[in-house]
Design a protein that fits this description.
Number of strands of chain A: 16
Helix content of chain B: 55-70%
Largest sheet of chain A: 6 strands, mixed
Largest sheet of chain B: none
Distance between the termini of chain A: 39 Å
Mean pLDDT of chain A: 82
Order of helices and strands of chain B: HHH
Helix content of chain A: 55-70%
Low-confidence stretches of chain B: none
Oligomer: heterodimer
Structural class of chain A: alpha/beta
Mean pLDDT of chain B: 89
Low-confidence stretches of chain A: 702-707
Strand content of chain B: under 5%
Chain lengths: ~750, ~55
């Protein structure tokens, strides 16, 4: 049994200057309603910070330190205290000194979904999705070990390759022309040279590979110096000054000279300004220059500039990579030549002084300044000159009288050195190949197991995702929803759309459907893998959901997740009302406002809903306001009835499907009732006609600013009739709707005492 | 479904490989548990040692 939340206390945290307490009772689910900007998300932020040590959305914006409320009282530390049903609770104090180990499993489990991250997940690349999933599932440690095994195997492979190259190079050096180099052939040539020189003739190549043999035959100095001179000579022969990537340098010079590039020096200033504005009281003037400007305007201007600067910064980083490659290539060329100078010194070969890499290159890259291309070209020319001079100097050190005995002995020493390298590389290759065989077996077994495990997990998740998605979109012809592995390191969501597999499903699913898919994936992962946390926080996740699917999501959460503790934060009153009706046992809170001095203001939510608000306005003497609210309540109720009865309504493009006229909705209700419960329509008709008259005469007047005025008594009567219509569709025992369970053809309330159609009552 | 643990997973993998050099499984498990700074390099050296290199 996982842990549930009992209490959350925030002090001086984010939007809370003093103390804010959220009481979850004994792990009860909670729905929080509040307009945007009232501080709902602070609850999600606090739980995320407590259980993971960070707030991802802040980190994305580079504001990960914006934890403490700037107007928090005195020296009172910023803290978040959580009481759970188990051991995961405690108190976190800012600055947070908890290490990654302290978050343990709870830091990995799925518990928070924000509306803003839904689209992000759907749009992630396959590799990013895999990374996100691997982290969630705790597969990252296993994945990191796979990467280390792969790197170890790769390094051994590189060693084998290097040994093969050494063998090939040694053979090339020994061979003359296209002759195939064999042990026997080389031994025979050596023996001929030795006979001609009148020195000891070796019987095997192993003999000459021993440095003592050549030392004894040719003398110590020749044996040592000749191979070194040969190496120096062949390296110098292969020297080439690196090509200049003039386009990369020109692109860098263009970007740093542009207006955007010049403005980048202001980036940190604007980041600070943004952080300041996010956590400071709304000001009437700019805190820097004092100009009168509204806080909203100022924040919006700063954000706009900051967004532009961040884009310029990313563009500059991309271009800098090309210029950095150029700098590295020139620096590597210089380093290679320094090595030659070092090796030439003991052989007393005087090489010329090396040119210096122009300072302007590094200075330009680090100081975001232009780079002098002419200086780079001059440096390259200097390198070419140096290479030619070095080759001449080395060549001059090679003994001129190649026919003399001394130079023949030197040549013998060079051949012996190559044979030594060849034999030693053969041994290295044999060792590396044995190790590679073992590394291959280990890696392949590991990868196979990992693939099997991933497939098993994805199958399990896919089943749940499909079930949840189906609950959100019942009766839609979409099937075969799966989460599939994609090569070794990627996953992708897939759907079967009218017989064709769509992977990813972006092409065939609307934004709302994609969001449903992401919610389904989130809920499925929590159901499948959560072991410690038995609560889920959903922060404004229904932004792109239409009214019908908001109802489906509310039903899903209330019914399929009734063994979980859910914390649902929303600014959508209809969704909140849906939840309230579907899950009467949940606690409900409303955040009514936020102020700099007091932070979010929270009250228990009155379940009377919008109709209750209309009544309240009427009591306060605001007849017009009451009429407007009553009309809205009637619209919502009619819309809900139409959805529940699956009444066909004329299609309206986009979100306008949620904004139908009352006349259209009345027709829909009549059509739906006639189809499923014809007898009920006769009883209902007088009430519907009354309500239509109310809309024309009482509820429409104020809303449309006509000259007439509704009397309080008329609005009061309208309210009673709306309540009467509401009661028709609600159970008098449990208060839930008659369509709580079932289909438009046959449904019932939660307790089962009220049914629809009425004649189906047993 | 229980979350996998890297050491248990490694043990499961090593159990599927026949004729592993003696002592390699134990040393590899210890190495993974010890979390050395450059684990890939440590694994490479271990493999080389056990392959008779």
């Amino acid at each position: 049994v996982g842990e549930r939340l009992h209490r959350l206390t925030m002090r001086g945290f984010r939007g809370v200057p003093g103390e804010m307490d959220v009481d979850f009772g004994a792990g009860t689910s909670l729905a929080v309603y509040g307009d945007n900007g009232t501080g709902k998300s602070t609850i999600a932020d606090a739980l995320e910070w407590f259980f993971t040590g960070g707030i991802e959305l802040l980190s994305h914006e580079g504001r990960q330190h914006a934890i403490r409320n700037l107007s928090a009282e005195g020296n009172e530390p910023t803290s978040v205290e959580v009481v759970t049903s188990g051991e995961l609770g405690g108190k976190a104090v800012f600055p947070d000194e908890r290490g990654p180990d302290q978050f343990g499993v709870s830091g990995r489990e799925t518990f928070l979904l924000r509306g803003r991250t839904l689209a992000d997940f759907i749009n992630k690349t396959k590799t990013e999705k895999w990374k996100a999933l691997a982290e969630l599932l705790g597969l990252d440690a296993i994945e990191l070990l796979r990467q280390d095994l792969q790197r170890a195997r790769g390094d051994i492979k590189k060693q084998a390759k290097a040994a093969e190259e050494k063998i090939a190079a040694s053979r090339r050096a020994i061979s003359s022309g296209d002759t195939v180099v064999t042990e026997e052939g080389v031994l025979e040539t050596l023996q001929q040279i030795c006979r001609a020189l009148g020195v000891e003739v070796p019987e095997a190549l192993a003999t000459v590979a021993d440095t003592a043999w050549i030392g004894a035959v040719a003398g110590e100095s020749a044996a040592l110096a000749a191979p070194k001179l040969e190496m120096l000579s062949s390296t110098a022969a292969g020297l080439r000054a690196p090509a200049l990537d003039e386009k990369a340098i020109a692109a860098w010079n263009t970007v740093v000279s542009s207006e955007g590039g010049k403005d980048l020096s202001l980036l940190s200033l604007f980041q600070d300004a943004d952080a300041f504005l996010s956590s400071s009281p709304p000001a009437e003037s700019c805190p820097l220059c004092g100009q009168a400007v509204s806080a909203g305007q100022l924040t919006s201007r700063v954000r706009k500039v900051l967004t532009g600067l961040l884009e310029s910064s990313r563009e500059m980083d991309r271009i800098r990579d090309g210029a950095l490659e150029q700098r590295d290539a020139l620096a590597a060329a210089l380093e290679l030549r320094r090595g030659l100078v070092t090796h030439a010194k003991p052989l007393r070969i005087p090489l010329p002084g090396l040119p210096a890499l122009p300072d302007a290159l590094s200075a330009g890259l680090e100081g975001r300044a232009t780079i002098d291309l002419a200086a780079l070209k001059a440096f390259r020319k200097d390198l070419e000159r140096w290479d030619a001079d070095a080759r001449k100097a080395i060549q001059a050190s090679v003994p001129a009288d190649a026919g003399t005995r001394q130079s023949q002995l030197a040549m013998l020493a060079v051949i012996c050195e190559h044979i030594r390298t060849w034999h030693s590389a053969e041994r290295e290759l044999a060792r590396a190949q044995k190790a590679l065989g073992l590394a291959d077996r280990l890696y392949e077994a590991y990868q196979d197991c990992q693939k099997r495990q991933l497939e098993e997990m994805l199958t399990s998740i896919s089943r749940r995702v499909a079930e949840i998605y189906d609950a959100l979109h019942p009766g839609e012809s979409l099937s075969g929803i799966t989460v599939e592995p994609w090569t070794a390191k990627g996953i992708e969501l897939a759907v079967d759309f009218h017989g064709s597999k769509q992977r990813p499903p972006h092409g065939v699913l609307s934004e709302s459907h994609l969001n449903s898919l992401a919610i389904a994936l989130f809920l499925a992962m929590a159901q499948t893998f959560n072991q410690r946390l038995r609560f889920l926080v959903l922060d404004d996740v229904i932004n792109s959901f239409d009214l019908e699917h908001r109802g489906e999501l509310a039903a899903l959460l209330a019914e399929k997740f009734d063994d979980w503790q859910l914390v649902v934060l929303t600014h959508d009153r209809q969704f909140f009302e849906h939840l309230a009706r579907r899950a009467p046992s949940w606690k409900r809170l409303e955040i009514t406002s936020w102020s700099y001095e007091r932070g979010p203001r929270m009250t228990s939510y009155r379940s009377s809903g919008i109709l209750g608000e209309a009544q309240e306005r009427l009591t306060q003497g605001d007849v017009g306001g009451a009429a407007t609210k009553a009309r809205r309540a009637l619209e919502e109720l009619l819309q809900e009835i139409c959805e529940a009865l699956a009444a066909a309504l004329p299609f309206r493009r986009g979100t306008k499907n949620d904004q139908r006229e009352i006349g259209e909705l009345m027709k829909g209700v009549r059509r739906g009732v006639k189809e499923h419960a014809k007898g009920m329509l006769t009883e209902l008709e007088p009430l519907l006609k009354h309500l239509e008259a109310d809309v024309q005469a009482t509820l429409n007047v104020e809303a449309h600013a006509s000259r007439g005025r509704s009397a309080a008594a008329e609005v009061e009567a309208s309210l009673r009739r709306i309540e009467q219509l509401d009661r028709v569709w609600s159970c008098s025992e449990c208060g839930t709707r008659l369509w709580h369970k079932g289909t438009p053809e046959s449904s019932r309330c939660k307790c089962g005492k009220s049914v629809f159609p009425p004649s189906s009552r047993s | 479904m229980p979350r996998p643990n890297e050491l248990e997973f490694l043990a499961q993998v090593l159990g599927t490989i026949e004729d592993l050099p003696e002592g390699l499984a134990e040393r590899l498990a210890k190495l993974v548990a010890d979390k050395p700074e450059d684990r890939a390099d440590a694994i490479r050296r271990l493999i080389e040692e056990h392959s008779g290199g």
